[in-house]
Every structure is written in C-alpha cells, then in structure tokens.
Design goal:
single chain, alpha+beta, three-stranded antiparallel sheet, 3 strands, 51% helix, binds L-tyrosinamide
C-alpha cells in the first residue's frame, strides 16, 4: 500500500471512529468534547481525493447535565422505657460519629419527644446504619428501635 493510500485509509477510519464515538457516547466529558471537536474539524481524505457525504464533519451538541442529587434518608431512633440512656448515647457516638455532648443531647431529645434524627444519608448508607443499630441493640438485649425515613 502506497503512503498516500495509507494516509487516505487512516483518514477514513478516523472519521468513522469519530462518528461511532459520538453516537455511542452522547454526554462526553469536556476533555473529550475538546478532543472530539478537533477530530470533527479534520476533513477525512477519501481515496478519490473528493470529500463525499460520508466524510461530512461530526457536530457534537452539548447535552445539559441530567444527574440529580440522590434522595436522602434520615435515620431516626425511637424512645422506649427500657433501653438504658448510656447505651443510646454510646450507639449515637459509635454509629453516627457524634461527640459525647451531641450524642447526649440527641438521646435526651428522643427521651423527651419520642424520637430523634441521628443522621441523614443516602439510601444504602441509611439502611446500613439501621442494621448496625438494630444488631447492637439485639446483641445487648435492649428493645431500642431504629428506622430510616425518606426526605422530601
Ligand atoms: N427512655 C429511656 C430510659 O428512660 C432512654 C432512651 C432514650 C431509650 C432514647 C431509647 O432511643 C432512646 N431509659
């Protein structure tokens, strides 16, 4: 294959690859868009030397971001008459990363008002927190209840 023909083939392949890439990936990152813009502006050389319809430039449209923030869930502890206050304080410290003073305030709020929010997380993290608290309460033989509630 002569050098000119080889270059022509490379031009065709490059143009086809650019089109396939643009179709397969409609929301490229800005770094890729810059690269693709360069590709799209390069007119591929056909073997005949005349640009055909098939060699037309690719125009990429910027697609607006569609990613929404995830739904959040609050993890709530419920009051009961039997679980020791100290156990609840330690649970809040350990599983919700609160200092002792904050954990005590949350525990007292639950004790006085019936329930209290210990933290707000994505769905999976909230579910894990509930499991951890329920397991710890069961292990210790306390009836402490913990639930997750979707927000908004
Ligand atoms: N009411 C409990 C008591 O008097 C303390 C308690 C606080 C229990 C918070 C559960 O989520 C709770 N020992």
């Amino acid at each position: 294959m002569g050098a000119a023909l080889a270059m022509a083939h490379v031009g065709l392949i490059y143009g086809a690859a650019a089109r396939a890439f643009a179709l397969a990936w409609p929301e490229p990152s800005s770094r890729h868009v810059d690269k693709m813009d360069c590709m799209a502006m390069t007119q591929p050389i056909s073997p005949t030397g005349t640009p055909s319809d098939d060699d037309a430039s690719v125009v990429l449209e910027r697609v607006p971001q569609k990613v929404k923030p995830p739904q959040m869930h609050q993890v709530v502890l419920l009051n009961d008459d039997y679980t020791p206050m100290e156990f609840v304080v330690v649970v809040i410290q350990e599983f919700f990363s609160k200092d002792r003073e904050t954990a005590t305030q949350i525990m007292l709020k639950i004790h006085l008002e019936g329930k209290g929010v210990c933290g707000v997380y994505t769905h999976d993290v909230a579910a894990t927190k509930v499991d951890q608290v329920m397991d710890a309460a069961q292990q210790a033989g306390h009836p402490l209840q913990c639930v997750s509630e979707p927000l908004e």
